[in-house]
Specification:
Number of strands: 25
Shape: globular
CATH superfamily of the largest domain: Alkaline phosphatase D (PhoD)
Number of helices: 8
Strand content: 25-35%
Radius of gyration: 23 Å
Number of domains: 2
Structural class: alpha+beta
Length: 534
Amino acid sequence: MSTQSRLSIRGDYRRMKNFKFIVAGLLTLAGCNQSTDSRPVAETILATPETSITPIVPRGPYQTTGIKIGEVTSAEAIVWTRLTQNPERVGSDAPWPNVLYKSPDSDELQEDLPGRFHPHDWVPVVTYPEGYSLDNIDGAVRGAEGELRVEYRPEGSENWLSTEWQAVDPEQDFTSQFMLINLLSGADYEVRVESRQTGSTEVSSAIEGHFRTAPSPDVPARVVFAATTGQDYEDQDAPGGGFRMYPSMMDLDVDFFVHTGDIVYYDAYAKNVDLARWGWARMYSLPTNMEFQRNVTSYFIKDDHDTWQDDTWPTQESSYMGALTFQDGVRIFKEQVPMNDLTYRTYRWGQDLQVWLVEGRDYRDENEVPDYVGKSIWGEEQKAWFKETVEASDATFKILISPTPMVGPDNEGKTDSHANVSFDFEGSELRKFMADQDNMITIVGDRHWQYVSVDDETGLREYATGPASDTHTSGWSSNDDVRPEHRYLNIIGGFLLTTVERVDEVPTMAMRHYGVDGNLLNEHILTEAILAAD
């Protein structure tokens, strides 16, 4: 399907405002290991001949933070939704909260220190400019109570499927997540999310969208996916708000998208739960982000800045983030994106591709102690799961997608990834394990530049996506600082595109770096023979 047709998906949406329905049968999760999931599950519905059209009522609640469609398999998907009080976000001409800090050495409030170093014994004090609050600061989109349902159907089908109406949860930032099951594999689906006031029969808002399911594991399908990292609200680059990379990725008609982490940056402002949620609401009410997320299957990984703060770990002691705790960040992430119980998971996309998305924050040991046997970023349970599922896979190409580097090279003095000496025991173990597998590479986020590297000890290949905008590049000295491991280096924003397909019946994986406007910057065409030579 072309991007143009994807963006123009409408079908009979505008005529289907509030049909009377006949329930034809309720689908269940029998035989699935999702049986403990509390999300509403879809039921089959057919429109009756004597339908009536009810106009959308412009009284709210609305869906100003859009929808997200994720955790998609060949048969399932999760649709994330949220209800809002107002139909539009507060404009970016409104101010931010003021954040100053108290230090143990002074009674006077002071500004944060420049750069990456933040004193962990400083205590933030948040105030608002006169006349402003959480309701009307830059990008504010306050939540609202009400109900939602999801309608969906394979493209070209006459009959719609639907979930039950489901109330949003005020304790979960007025969000709700819907599990869709028994989907067709390798299929394009139309989706429509409707809202209404609690107990009403009138639809108050509707969002239309699209997603694509994974092909079955026995199908040698062409699969295209994009990945990026480092999406900072302060570094937007699109006219009208947002990021230029999103329409560029849509122009390439990607099957799915992976955000490798640092989706939002809590450090400077998220000093309590409400302000952390504000960060998500303003990010995903941006026009480019909303348009992309309603049309593209997506998977989300969190890293340090969208968990708590820079280079964080669970037992870290710090007053710098105020009332927001590490565990608050863990919980809010699962509240703000489509997600199952575990944030480490694997997905199969056809015969030739399987990806592993891992959790790099929740189970890690302290960064700053010297390395030792047993020191871990992943934790033993996740590591055992990873090895077991990789060894069990018969996919032609296997890709680890990690929020932090596995190979590097990284800057000296860093202590946060498997590419650093602080986690070298586990890093060496995992690099050797992956290099011993057939046709396995890594895609990584976190680094604010694009690169390709090959580990000199194991031959493991690593592709760093680069950040979401050019203004968010930093951390590497210059493009002239090419190390022996590098096969490509570019301090630039954009994304990585992976295309897996059969070329003359030969399984091929093309790795392409793009700039934010969709300009091709680097290309590697990989086959089983090329990877074996590494």
